[in-house]
Amino acid sequence: MAVQPQEIKLGTRRVTFPSEYLQQLEDSNHCLNDVNALHQEMQTKGYLYLRGFHDREEVLQARLEVLKYLKSTSDDILSSKQPLEMGVLKQGCGVGCVPFMEGKNVISHADPVRKVLEGPRPFEFFKNYFGGREVRTFDFKWLRAVHTEGFTGAHVDNVYMSRGSKELLTMWTPLGDITADMGVLAMCEGSHRLPSFAKFQEKYGNLDVEAVGLKGTGWFTCDPYEITDKFGGQWKTTNFQAGDVMIFTMRTLHMSTVNLTNLARISCDTRWQPLADVADPRYIGDFQTPGTKFGLYSTDESKTTSDNTMEHYRIKWGF
Ligand SMILES: O=C(O)CCC(=O)C(=O)O
Fold first, then answer.
1. Which fold does the domain 20-189+237-288 belong to in CATH?
2. Which residue windows are transmembrane per the record (predicted)?
């Protein structure tokens, strides 16, 4: 069935989806029984979009658990006029209204949530993907309920977690049916390998934002046009269904669409690697929840030129 074009926001830009600029993602489900084909897809696109990967009912149970948790923390987050499972935010619930749920905590590791994030499906998938080697996932979970107007700017994950396995992959799991106007991942296809991104990857992609004490989010930009104008690639996204996942490399540039609705956008990123590889110590074992927060929970300093801001580095790198 053809998708009706709709006006959404990708970072700072209003865009029509689907359109030439922001295309529909194609899934890689046809490769699921052929590990070489999965590798080939990852190599070509920089990601694997897999539909119906998790059990839908289990995902909806995990979502409900998160909503119950949010309700238990404060009466100011969710509207009591609507059924809890809808996840309707109270009017005015913006930045800072939804509690920080990243790390290893009562909700990131609640049974229904763990059942999805660390269930047999991802373990089997990654073991197969990594050629039969045993795998591990970080204890740290990037569990989020994104408020109205919230979004994630364009970045590669390598800037946050480059101190371990070179084969590390991200799996992004939407907890619920999440349409493009609620805040979904958009992938810049080819950004991990195209020669036009070589300098971007060498300079920005190799930055360890914590080691340099970067101020701000760690995002390269909030403007998707800047990426395609300067480096090329193709932005793609989709309306996600509960059960779908997006798996991608540490070098694949991605961002999210803006949550234009009054619904909490609940999702979690998890990380996977071969067990025998070194794991980034910041995210396993008895880590401390980071004092420095990057990404969504930081202030956007991308246009500030003072030392150690992204703008400072972009000028230094000649971007
Ligand atoms: O959920 C988001 O908004 C961003 C997720 C992300 O950047 C990631 O999975 O690496």
1. Jelly Rolls (2.60.120)
2. none
Q: What is the pLDDT of residues 88-136, one digit of tens each?
A: 999 988 888 999 999 999 999 999 999 999 999 999 999 999 999 999 9
Nearest residue (by CA) to ligand 1, atom 5, is 269
201 lines ligand 1 (CB under 6 A): no
Q: How do strand 13-17 and strand 6-10 relate by DSSP bridges?
A: antiparallel
Q: Are strands 234-237 and 22-24 parallel, antiparallel or unpaired?
A: parallel
pLDDT tens for each residue of 226-283: 999 999 999 999 999 999 999 999 999 999 999 999 999 999 999 999 999 999 999 9
Residue 90 and residue 95: Cα distance in Å, rounded? 13
Among 108, 269, 270, 272, the mutation site with the greatest number of ligand 1 atoms within 8 A of its Cβ is 269
Q: Residues 197, 254: contact at Cβ < 8 Å?
A: no
The residue whose CA has the least distance to atom 8 of ligand 1 is 269
